[in-house]
């Protein structure tokens, strides 16, 4: 049992049991009325006092808190409790130890636990926790009583002065009561007469007491019913929890059994299928094994590899039928250009230049087809010897030397503008022819450092040694110069959006084949912008007009590379002589458009 949520010590409970042994009939009836179940087995009002007392003492340990009926009786049975109720909280807390020495430790502390004041009860629990269980002897009790009397002298004197002021008849009664000669109840002669109003109030009070007792009995019965219903609900909840746990276990066992059943069914089905089908499948397996052993897999594999190699070669160099068709179209177009030059009174200089380029293209195609090469028509007497040497060049070293000689002639001003343009065009065609013959655009060739004068070859050499390179492409210049490659994508005879997309696709394929080559593709456009087609391919639009065209932006970017990465191998693809000359000043290589065609055609 607890008081203020603190467990009551055993020695205090034993003291209270001893006090309950002195219950009179009235006290027993009051407790039995509060707790009818203690009188079970007896008729109301006919409970054996000894049995009732035993049940009341035993029930003291079953209560979670001390009931008020028990508290009232224990306070009335304790002499110390009647003293504590007249003392202030501070006095009880201060003199609690001395009261224990005077009246007995257990008696005093148990009376403090019965007090209505929280501070007194708290002090009582604290003293019980520190008490070693020893009780004071008679000498200690006398000394403590004298000490308390000395402390309470003022209080005692005040009580005595009040008693002296009482009427003489009350003093005589007090003396008689103190001497034991009279009972504590006043005689009828000294009582005041009761008025009719007092009688009615007394009757009303008795009726109210009856109603209170009836209400207390109803409350006790409802409390008992509530406790019984609560116990039943708790039992049902516990049973429900057990049922849920049992259902969960049964579901788990069912799942396991179902899994085992499915596994057994699959095993039996597979066993029966194997027993029935294997006899039919064994002859077929034997036949297939014999066919596989008799086949010459090595020969078929060699044939597949050879066909793949031939397909790769055809994709690289094209088919003879395509070259023959291209040769026929080129020769027909060259004849038309010649007829236009003869019929016109003022032929354009570009007609002669384009005729020379077609002648070099026809020569390259005939060389690839194994036909007798046709000597290109000399553009002027100043370049006859150059054309002759170029048409008979069979190695990259010879073309590199001719390129250096052409650059020196350009610097010295020995050739006219249209002669330089035609010479560079024929140089590109010859380079394409020699590259195609040496299969430079295929696998990595045996590189020769002496051929670094050719930009494409220099880039191939650097890429073969896993060195980073940058290629800057003048997009619209390439689209105009490689009309034979992009003319099908022209819009109304001019390269537009579709042609630009075709060039981007070819350069994207090149960027995937050569991951070490960083490609920057520039286009003329009214609005400036850039985008990434792949990790190593960026597309730029110059924006603006006039001075802000793509060639100016390309030269500015090459100057930036010269300052930021001077050791980086870089080349610009263009047939614009001014742009190529400015690129050479920045340390970049000037690659002809025809050389780029070897990579993207």
Cα-atom radius of gyration: 62 Å
The computed structural class is mainly alpha
pLDDT < 50 stretches? 176-191, 373-381, 439-452
Describe the strand arrangement of the main beta sheet, using strand numbers. 5-6-4-3-7-8
How many beta-strand elements?
8
Largest sheet: 6 strands, mixed
Mean pLDDT: 77
Rounded to the nearest angstrom, the distance between the terminal CA atoms is 103 Å
Strand percentage, roughly?
Answer: 5-15%
Shape: elongated
- The level of helicity is 55-70%
Q: What's the helix count?
A: 25
Description:
This protein is mostly helical and 601 residues long. The two termini are 103 Å apart. The chain is built from 25 helices and eight strands. It is elongated, with a radius of gyration of 62 Å. The protein has a six-stranded mixed sheet with strand order 5-6-4-3-7-8, sandwiched between helices. A two-stranded antiparallel ribbon has the order 1-2.
Gist?
The chain is 68% helix and 6% strand. By secondary structure, it is mostly helical. The strands form 2 sheets. The chain has a 6-stranded mixed beta sheet, with helices on both faces. A two-stranded antiparallel sheet has the order 1-2.
Notable features of this structure?
single chain, about 600 residues, mainly alpha, six-stranded mixed sheet, two-stranded antiparallel ribbon, 25 helices, 8 strands, elongated
SSE blueprint and pairings:
Elements: E1 2-3, E2 6-7, H1 10-20, H2 25-34, H3 49-59, H4 68-77, H5 79-84, H6 89-103, H7 105-114, H8 118-130, H9 138-151, H10 153-164, H11 168-179, H12 196-294, H13 297-317, H14 320-343, H15 349-369, H16 384-391, H17 396-412, H18 417-438, H19 455-464, E3 469-474, H20 475-481, H21 483-486, H22 497-513, E4 517-523, E5 529-534, E6 537-541, H23 550-564, E7 569-573, H24 577-585, E8 589-591, H25 593-600
Parallel strand pairs: 3-4, 3-7, 4-6, 7-8
Antiparallel strand pairs: 1-2, 5-6
């Amino acid at each position: 049992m607890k008081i203020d949520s603190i467990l009551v010590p055993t020695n205090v409970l034993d003291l209270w049991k001893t006090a309950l042994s002195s219950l009179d009939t009235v006290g027993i009836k009051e407790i039995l009325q509060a707790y009818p179940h203690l009188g079970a087995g007896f008729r109301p009002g006919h409970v054996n006092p000894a049995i009732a007392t035993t049940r009341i003492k035993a029930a003291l340990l079953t209560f979670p808190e001390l009931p008020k009926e028990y508290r009232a009786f224990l306070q009335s049975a304790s002499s110390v409790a009647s003293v504590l109720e007249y003392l202030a909280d501070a006095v009880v807390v201060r003199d609690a130890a001395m009261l224990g020495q005077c009246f007995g430790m257990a008696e005093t502390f148990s009376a403090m636990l019965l007090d209505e004041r929280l501070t007194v009860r708290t002090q009582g629990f604290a003293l019980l926790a520190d008490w070693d269980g020893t009780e004071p002897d008679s000498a200690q009790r006398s000394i403590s009583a004298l000490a308390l009397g000395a402390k309470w002298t003022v209080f005692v004197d005040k009580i005595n002065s009040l008693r002296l002021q009482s009427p003489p008849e009350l003093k005589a009664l007090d003396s008689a009561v103190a001497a034991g000669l009279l009972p504590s109840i006043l005689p009828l002669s000294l009582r005041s007469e009761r008025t009719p109003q007092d009688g009615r109030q007394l009757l009303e009070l008795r009726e109210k007491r009856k109603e209170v007792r009836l209400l207390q009995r109803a409350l006790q019965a409802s409390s008992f019913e509530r406790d019984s219903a609560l116990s039943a609900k708790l039992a049902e909840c516990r049973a429900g929890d057990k049922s849920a746990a049992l259902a969960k276990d049964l579901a788990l066992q069912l799942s396991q059994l179902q899994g085992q059943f499915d596994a057994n069914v699959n095993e039996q089905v597979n066993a029966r299928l194997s027993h029935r089908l294997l006899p039919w499948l064994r002859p077929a397996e034997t036949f297939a094994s014999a066919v596989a052993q008799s086949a010459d897999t090595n020969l078929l594999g060699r044939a597949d590899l050879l066909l793949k190699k031939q397909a790769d070669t055809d994709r690289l160099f094209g088919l003879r039928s395509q070259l023959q068709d291209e040769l026929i179209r080129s020769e027909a177009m060259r004849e038309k250009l010649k007829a236009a030059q003869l019929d016109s009174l003022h032929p354009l200089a570009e007609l002669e230049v384009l005729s020379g380029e077609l002648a070099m293209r026809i020569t390259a195609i005939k060389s690839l087809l194994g036909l007798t090469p046709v000597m290109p028509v000399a553009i002027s007497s100043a370049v006859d010897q150059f054309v002759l040497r170029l048409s008979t060049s069979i190695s990259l070293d010879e073309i590199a030397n001719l390129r250096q000689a052409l650059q020196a002639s350009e610097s010295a001003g020995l050739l006219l503008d249209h002669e330089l343009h035609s010479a560079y065009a024929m140089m590109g065609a010859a380079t394409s022819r020699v590259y195609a013959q040496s299969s430079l655009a295929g696998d990595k060739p045996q590189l020769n450092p002496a051929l670094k004068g050719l930009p494409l070859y220099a880039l191939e050499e650097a890429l073969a040694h896993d060195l980073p390179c940058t290629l800057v492409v003048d997009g619209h210049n390439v689209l105009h110069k490689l009309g034979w490659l992009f003319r099908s994508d022209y819009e109304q005879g001019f390269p537009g959006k579709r042609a630009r997309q075709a060039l981007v696709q070819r350069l994207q394929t090149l960027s995937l084949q050569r991951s070490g080559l960083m490609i920057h593709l520039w286009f003329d456009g009214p609005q400036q912008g850039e985008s990434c087609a792949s990790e190593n391919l960026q597309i730029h639009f110059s924006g603006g007009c006039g001075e802000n065209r793509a060639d100016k932006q390309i030269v500015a970017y090459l100057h930036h590379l010269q300052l930021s990465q001077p050791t980086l191998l870089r080349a610009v693809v263009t047939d614009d002589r001014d742009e190529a000359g400015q690129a050479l000043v920045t340390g970049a290589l000037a690659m002809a458009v025809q050389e780029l065609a070897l990579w993207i055609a």
